[in-house]
Every structure is written in structure tokens, then in C-alpha cells.
Amino acid sequence: MTTRISIRGVARTFPLQGKDFVALGDVSLDVADNEFVTIVGPSGCGKSTLLNIVAGLDHPTGGQALVGGQAVTGPGPDRGVIFQQFALFPWLTVRRNVEFGLRTAGVPRAERRRRAEHFIDLVGLTQFADALPKTLSGGMKQRCAIARAYAVDPSILLMDEPFGALDALTRVRLQEQLLDTWSREKRTVMFVTHDVDEAVFLANRVVVMAANPGRIVEVIDVDLPFPRTEEVRLGPDFSRLRNRVWSAVYHQPAQERKPS
Ligand SMILES: Nc1ncnc2c1ncn2[C@@H]1O[C@H](COP(=O)(O)OP(=O)(O)OP(=O)(O)O)[C@@H](O)[C@H]1O
Predict the structure, then answer these.
(1) Which residues line ligand 1 (CB under 6 A)?
(2) For residue 252, what is the domain's CATH number?
(3) Between the CA atoms of 122, 169, 138 and 162, what dihedral angle is there, to the nearest 10 degrees?
(4) Tell me: the pLDDT tens digits for 171-229?
(5) Is 100 a member of any domain?
């Protein structure tokens, strides 16, 4: 399998009290084409920092991130980013939000419309294509954000706690829906979460991080079958994996945020 993302010895320090705080120590990870990787770990272990470096929204102070063999120097249309906050334009309808990136990329009107419709349909929002974001539930807004990210056809989706603000039931539904979308239109995904169940349910591999310095402590293969149905979620193999990830996350010594 081809490597799509290669994180090589990435470090990120921030100044703190006149010294350096090591948000990321020495992080290396390869993500294959069309692989779904989740990143889980305690608050402050550098999950968002790592994702932002791959997105080109932040820069490492050591090492480098490569996408398709090229060093990341900034954001690019090959990487779609989805954050916890829905970040939709409130004055634009669902359709216009989804078309937005295509418009800025100069895609002709008819093609814009066709692609927007395809992805709106894929996330199940066809009936709401002409609705404004304020009339949508949180889950629907996030589905719209996913359709918008997909529409510009990135090979990589970088998702930072996209379902973090949603209630448990909506969250589970969106996990299933995201996997359904992903299985029909495969992309390389890096997905940051606090939620161990979510991390296991979605992933081909779970990357467990620890803090101070931010680092990878374990990478766990998830050999559960697709589609990930409710039966899979309630089955013994899922609980075995969940318990394993849980121990790796929660049996870490408590760490204070301090400069080194
Ligand atoms: N711009 C910044 N300036 C100073 N410190 C920062 C900056 N960005 C992140 N940090 C610090 O780096 C560490 C890692 O932050 P990051 O947001 O990547 O963690 P995280 O694992 O995503 O946390 P959470 O799960 O709480 O969102 C934290 O201690 C944070 O305070």
C-alpha cells in the first residue's frame, strides 16, 4: 500500500515561562492511502498540534510532515480539514456551503452544482439542500461540513473532534454515517478524538498518544470487519480492543504542563 502521509521525527515546542514546552517530542507515523487512522490520548498530548502540522496550519520545530512524498509547507486542496465547530457560513444554504470551495477553485457552475448534489446526497441532506445552517441540528451541520470537505475532492481528510459537541446518540449515528461515506468514497483519514469507543469503531488503526512530551505510545491494529454494524459495536472483539486502547490511554501517569 502506498504511504500517503509520513510524519518523520516531528517535534513542536512552544515558549513557556522563558523555556521551551515540548508539545510534541519526536513523533513518527506513516498513514497509508485510504487508511482510517484515529488518534486518541489525554487532553494536552498534542493531538491537535499534530493534525494542524499535517494540515499545514502549524509548523514543526523539528522533523517534517510529508504528504504524497512532498514536505508540507502550508494548507492545500489535497487536505480537507473538519473541526469540532461546524464552521459553516451562516448566510449560505447547505448547497452553497458545499459549493463554496468549488467556487473559489473556479469550478464551472454546472459542475459545482453536480458535485455539491452528489455529496449532499452522500451525507443524507438532500431534503435540506436549500436550508440555512441555523435551521439544522448539530449533527446535520456536521454532515454538511463533511460534504463540504469532500466536495473539493481532497485525498486526505483531517478531522479534529468533529463529533465532540454532539450528544451520544447523534455521535454514534454520525460515526456510522461517516464510515458509510468513507467506504463508498475512500480517503485517507486522520481523526482526532477523546473518545475510546469512537477511536476503535472508526479505525483501521488507533494511535495512542501521551503527554509531556507529546508522543505516540502505542499503535493498535483494529481487525474488526466492515461494515461496522451495531453487532460489531456490541461484540466481544470490539470490547477486547476498546479495553486495550482504554488501558493504553488511562494508565498513563498524570502529567503537569511544565517547560523542560
Ligand atoms: N499556540 C500555542 N502556544 C502555547 N502552547 C500551545 C499552543 N498550542 C498548543 N499548546 C500546548 O501544547 C499542548 C498540546 O496541545 P494540543 O491542543 O495539541 O493538545 P490536544 O491533545 O489536542 O488537547 P485536547 O484534547 O485538550 O484538545 C498543550 O499543553 C497546549 O497547551
Answers:
(1) 14, 23, 41, 43-49, 194, 214, 257
(2) 3.40.50.300
(3) -70
(4) 898 899 899 889 988 999 999 999 999 999 999 999 999 999 999 999 999 999 999 99
(5) no
